[in-house]
Every structure is written in C-alpha cells, then in structure tokens.
Design brief:
By secondary structure, this protein is α/β, with parallel strands linked by helices. Helices cover 44% and strands 17% of the residues. The strands form 4 sheets. Strands 3-2-1-4-5-6-11 form a 7-stranded parallel β-sheet, with helices on both faces. A 3-stranded mixed β-sheet has the order 12-9-14. The protein is globular, with a radius of gyration of 19 Å.
C-alpha cells in the first residue's frame, strides 16, 4: 500500500513509519515541521535501510495535500498531524481548532477529491473525560474537558458522520492511552522542546540531570500508593497497532473506535522506581498538589483491539523505561556537542 503519514516526522509518526516501511508499504511523510525536524526522515531511512520520502506541508493546505495524494498514488492515510498539549490548548484554543479540526476537514476534502477513503486517525483516551468505570472500553461515554480533548472528539464525530454519509469510507479512530518509550536504536524518540508536560519525559530529564526534581502531582488519590495510575504503552506496540488497523480497514468499511492500551496500570511512584532501576540513577521528587484536570486512574479494556485487529501490547514496563533512557542519553550526548536543537540534529547525521 502507498500510505501518507501526516505528522510523520513527529514522535509517534516516526515509529509508525518504521513499522509500515518494514512491512514493505511505501510511506510518504507529510509534516509542516512545527514540532519536529526534517532529519527524522533520514533516521527512519537509516533504520529501515532505504530512504523515506518526505513532503513538507501543512494539512490545512488542501490543494497541496491533494497534489501529494495524487503524485504518490496514495491508497490510505494515517493522520497523526496536530497539536497535543492540553495546557497550551486552554491558552490557544483557536490554534488547536485550526490545526486539529480545520486541518482534518482539509485532509478529508483532499481525500474525497482524490477518492482516497481509508483513514487511520490518532485519537486519545482523553475523549473518555472523567472515567465512569474501569477498565475503559470503547462504549464508555465520551466528553471533553479542554480544547485539545474537544478537538479530538469533534474529529471523531465528524469521521462518524462521514462514514454514515458514504459507505465507501473505512475509518479507524485509535484511542491511545499513554504512549512512552523509544525505538531500540535510540535514533527516534520523544524529545520535547522546553519543559515536558508528561511524566516519562520529565523523569528521563531528571535522571539525566537536565532537571533537578520531579513534581509528583498528588499522593492522596484513592489508589494503591496515592499517586495517579495510567496505562503506559510502548510506542512500538502502538505503531504496530496502526499497521494492523490499516490491514483491518482493507475489508471493513464504516467507522471504528479502538483503544490502544495494555490494560495494565502503573502509578507515578512505580514509574519512578522502574526508571531508577534501568538508569541506575536516583530520581529526586517532591509531592505537590494535584494537577488540575487529572484523574486518579485511567486504563484500557484492550479486548476490542485484540478481537478486531489481533493486536496486543507485548513490550514490558522495563522496556518502556530502558528505551526512553537510552534515547535520553543519546539526546544529551548530541546536545552537549551542539546546544541548539536544529544544529544538534544536523550533528547527529
Ligand atoms: P508530535 O508533536 O511529536 O507529532 C505531531 C506532528 O504533527 C509534528 O511533527 C508536527 O510538526 C506535525 N504537525 C502539527 N500540526 C501540523 C499541521 N497543521 N500540518 C502538518 N503537520 C503538522 O506528537 P505525537 O506525540 O507524535 O502525537 C501524534 C498524534 O497522536 C497527535 O495527533 C496527538 O494528538 C495524538 N496523541 C498523542 C499522544 C501522546 O501522548 N503523544 C496521546 C494521545 C494522542
Ligand atoms: C496527559 C493529558 C492527556 C493526553 C496525554 C498524552 C492532561 C491533564 N492530560 O495525560 O490529555 O492525552 O497526556 O500522553 O494533561 N505526573 C506527575 N508529574 C509530572 C507529570 C505527570 O506526577 O511532571 C503524573 C500525572 O499527575 C498523572 C501521570 O503522571 O498521574 C501521567 O501524567 P501525563 O504523562 O501527563 O499523562 P496524563 O495525565 O495521563
């Protein structure tokens, strides 16, 4: 299959590109580089042993997208492009609706015009809002508490309406739980610019000495040790889920929401302990008040992915932490050589 990967040079997109390329699909990365760098395409190529095609473009540019769909004879789209920081979305809602919702409308217009009607969309467990029961299955009610979550929900609903309007559409909304980890080569991983919003990148930076201390947001939840419980999933397991979802869509029309999670939850303190074990470093932390908008526990019922896609996550917590640590050390090494990130990326080549 010829597959267009929007957001293909991003954290998750780059890992999806590796998995799809290794399955002999032709992968075309489409990204405006607002949160990634061009050299990621070269690193994907290095891993898979062949060059990876890259188009610099914005998903809101419908004509340009249409041209790319035509030129590369695209059969299916994996749509990961978008903005993803919850706090930022509260401050900049228009940017989030523009990039995420308007961007998706533009993509759908281009796909419709070129008669490409197979789509895998990056959704999130955030569409479940405050969990009403655990583990969360796909029938759990949806809601949103911030513009980022609302943008994901709007897109899912839009895609549902589209599939009702035209039975030729084949759409999978993959609801990710908490993606972490990195490619085993340490050529790809999550390297947030500025202060990390998410737990695992923050722990990695404390382990490496980039940051002094981790704030643990609350130890008074109704959980085993009082800290928040989440379903962390290795980004390579997640990437493999995309490949199987594409395969599933070949024979299955309509709209499908599918959780990608492990079904296993770990607390913040368990994550710290595991990271200390793999890194051999002490993670300094202090307990702070709860973070606004956080829930005590969130983890998936992953049965649907197993039944429909034949997918289950296989990588362990230790693997999630050790691959993150390996990647963090690689980033630190090159950042030390070249403190400005774009130049640093050139140095890595
Ligand atoms: P990322 O920021 O690393 O990747 C997103 C990519 O999209 C970036 O390379 C960015 O440059 C690109 N992009 C943004 N706006 C664009 C636009 N208008 N046109 C073209 N390219 C654009 O993020 P990620 O962690 O890889 O997330 C990928 C997707 O998965 C996002 O849609 C995100 O909402 C979703 N998701 C991520 C997580 C997570 O924890 N990382 C969890 C749930 C869902
Ligand atoms: C967050 C987003 C969610 C998004 C997901 C992407 C919020 C409220 N939710 O989810 O919408 O889809 O990221 O992965 O932002 N923690 C700390 N200290 C930190 C960071 C986090 O103690 O510095 C705790 C949190 O309170 C939580 C756990 O670690 O219990 C995981 O947090 P995080 O990695 O931010 O993920 P989520 O909150 O699950």
């Amino acid at each position: 299959m010829n597959i267009l990967l929007t957001g293909g040079t991003g954290y998750i997109g780059s890992h999806v590109a590796v998995v799809l390329s290794e399955m002999s699909h032709r992968v075309v990365l489409y990204d405006n580089l607002s949160n990634s760098v061009r050299t990621v395409a070269d690193r994907i190529g290095e891993i898979v042993g062949k060059s990876c095609e890259f188009v610099r473009g914005d998903i809101r540019d419908t004509d340009f997208l249409q041209k790319a769909l035509r030129e590369y004879e695209i059969d299916a789209v994996v749509h990961l492009a978008g903005l993803k920081a919850v706090g930022e979305s509260v401050d900049k809602p228009i940017e989030y609706y523009s990039n995420n919702v308007q961007g998706t409308i533009s993509l759908l217009e281009a796909m419709k015009a070129e008669d490409v009607k197979r789509l895998v969309f990056s959704s999130s467990a955030t569409v479940y809002g405050q969990p009403q029961y655990l583990p969360i299955d796909e029938s759990h009610p949806t809601s949103a508490t911030n513009p980022y979550g609302r943008s994901k929900l709007h897109i899912e609903e839009m895609l549902g309406d589209l599939a009702i309007s035209d039975p030729d559409w084949h759409v999978a909304c993959l609801r990710y739980f908490n993606p972490v980890g990195a490619h085993e080569t340490a050529l790809l991983g999550e390297n947030p610019s500025g202060k990390p919003n998410n737990l695992v990148p923050f722990i990695a930076q404390v382990a490496s000495g980039t940051r002094a201390v981790l704030s643990v947001f609350g130890d008074d939840y109704d959980t085993s040790d009082g800290t928040g419980l989440r379903d962390y999933i290795h980004v390579m397991d997640l990437a493999e889920g995309h490949a199987l979802a594409l395969q599933f869509l070949v024979d299955n029309a309509g709209w499908h929401a599918i959780n990608l999670g492990t079904g296993q939850a770990y607390s913040v303190l368990e994550m710290i302990k595991s990271f200390e074990h793999v890194s051999g470093r002490k993670i300094a932390f202090e307990v702070m008040p709860r973070r606004s908008g956080d829930v005590a526990a969130c983890y998936a019922d992953a049965e649907k992915a197993r039944n429909l896609l034949g997918w289950t996550a296989t990588r362990t917590l230790e693997n999630m932490c050790s691959s993150t640590w390996h990647f963090q050390q690689t980033v630190d090494k090159y950042t030390a050589q070249c403190p400005k990130q774009p130049e640093c990326d050139k140095a890595r080549r």
